[in-house]
């Protein structure tokens, strides 16, 4: 199915790898307004509970984190990694059980969670002899998650391949009840020339907006349209400047921060500075703050200082936080909405369902 799209898909995949490593309705008692109560009353119950089958697509560390979090939450997780399977396996599981990173001088255990191993499947090919199996997976999944660690939004051609709808005339439409898509803060506030300069001079992961805003608006519209054509729900999680993603200074696999993050060698990837600010960021900024809609502002005039800061700054989004939020959105009762993800001070990320429920109750 859709074999004519494969050259486009392969081209996008190569670009994503190159770019990606720049480093139930609310109870009435909890509704704070008439509008919030109305949202709860109109919620469709298409939530996907743990145990459901999900497909995760995208690129970079955020793809690895989202897949890992889904597997930890108990979902049957299928992550499309292409020819980069070894790289993603190393990010999730680590190279060996006990090791010492010579550059970072970090020792201890890397995350070797049996639950992740049991629930996580790496898909290395979706074409040729594997095309039929991928079509069967897409036509039997409960949800699709899209997580891209770069400024490049997913193309409509690739979305057509991953989320085929009856309107396309294909034999097998996607069976997802919910599409969870990572997008960006697109309101333009706090972006512009200062953020662009910081991106060029200090940190290529700075979200500066620019021409990418229109590309992501197109992506958001396509996701919403496809959800409507499938009779499914969408949830869009918006990110600013992506930071962190590992276990910080705590390398004990039994602790939540390491269990939820990537292997320590994540900190040796991409551009390095005298001080590994990504490592320090993960040591104290694991909290999550959600804001409904597309209202989160960027760093503005302070972009140059925020670019590599390891404390809370406007427009920052922790990778561990947005990955966790996207996975919780699978089972959250409400659908068809978007929210921005910011960071907050905390040494460990939200882990339990009750913690995430409290965070989502603020929307």
The largest pleated sheet is described as: 8 strands, mixed
Q: What sort of overall outline do the alpha carbons produce when their principal axes are compared?
A: globular
User: Count of helical segments?
Assistant: 14
Strand proportion? 15-25%
Q: Walk across the major sheet and give the strand order.
A: 3-2-1-4-5-6-10-8
Distance linking N and C termini = 39 Å
Mean pLDDT: 79
Order of helices and strands: HHEHEHHEHEHEHHEEHHEHEHEH
CATH second-level architecture: 3-Layer(aba) Sandwich
Key descriptive features of the protein:
8-stranded mixed beta sheet; 15% strand; disordered N terminus; two-stranded parallel ribbon; single chain; 10 strands; Rossmann fold; 363 residues; globular; alpha/beta; 14 helices
